[in-house]
Specification:
By secondary structure, this protein is of the alpha/beta class. Helices cover 44% and strands 15% of the residues. The strands form two sheets. Strands 8-7-6-3-2-1-10-9 form an eight-stranded parallel β-sheet. The chain has a two-stranded antiparallel ribbon with strand order 4-5. The longest helix has 21 residues. The protein is globular and about 50 Å long. It starts with a helix and ends in a 13-residue tail after the last helix. The structure holds 1,3-dihydroxyacetonephosphate. The site of 1,3-dihydroxyacetonephosphate has 10 residues, from helix 11.
Length: 341
Amino acid sequence: MNIQDELQATIDVLVQKGKGILAADESSPTIAKRFKAIDVESTEENRRAYRSLILSTPGLGEFISGVILFEETLGQRTDDDITIPELCTKQGIVPGIKVDAGKLPLANSPGDEITQGLDGLELRLKGYKEQGARFAKWRDVYNISETTPGRLAIEANAEVLARYAAICQSQGIVPIVEPEVLIDGDHSLSRCAEVSEAVFHEVFHALHRHHVVLEHMLLKPNMMVPGKQHSQKASPDEVAAQTVRVLRRTVPAAVPSINFLSGGLTPEQSTAYLNAMNQMNPQPWELTFSYGRALQEPALQAWKGDSINNAQQTQSALYKRAKLNGAARYGKYMDAMESEN
Ligand code: 13P
């Protein structure tokens, strides 16, 4: 298969009605934080046991088309002694891999950060592909304050994101392009929209400059929401209207799918906001999810480090959130569904 056909085949499986992506690619410090919240030590065995348990949830593939894994997980084996990517494939789920190497302060731009990980990326991708990965993810972050993000951060991050995407496509790996404008702070919804519009605009400018094929990538943006410490809350309809407005201004129709991150929203908010967007007029792209916390939080709470006694509750908790987000893909989610089993 030539590279374009290979990329299209992966897009065809990732972008399906009623489905979205599960982000299970927490880096070592992040998974340690999530485990600490349930009093579980982050050992390699605990990480393997947890991820192998959630990914073997019966029927997960009904609502999940792809899963983003962390490098360590790609090489781990399940209790049935198959690799985790093999388990995903058995579930009808495409395995992907987080390839950025985290963020650093951006020199000469106080308060701004830059994502690293381009060095040796091409070679690493060849290895990940041999291990079964068919798509990748790279996350840039933007902090909102009175002075950030600055122009330098917006331009420098867009440039690395586009270089990453171009390298992925050259290797037959579909890139998920993730610019995340953070929810932290007391800014308003309109400030989030203003910053996100500038960020997304610059990202697509850079993608164009690097000849990235828009049909063969996915965008993973934040939704337009007020800062966590802001005094006013927004309704699902407001979030949906503002988010779609910014995306329509910045994202070409050639991009097949927009898969939102949850970014610190609750599981219920993440589902309700996505649902509200899918109740609006049809958009040029699919609007779906690539949630980490919003899919996994209830499962982690149910697991509590015990894969024997809590296995079924853990899997049911994940299945439920996947199913509700599957309903939100069609704009058919309702609050009342939260109390159903
Ligand atoms: P959250 O949905 O928890 O924000 O995670 C998604 C993700 O992959 C962040 O990079």
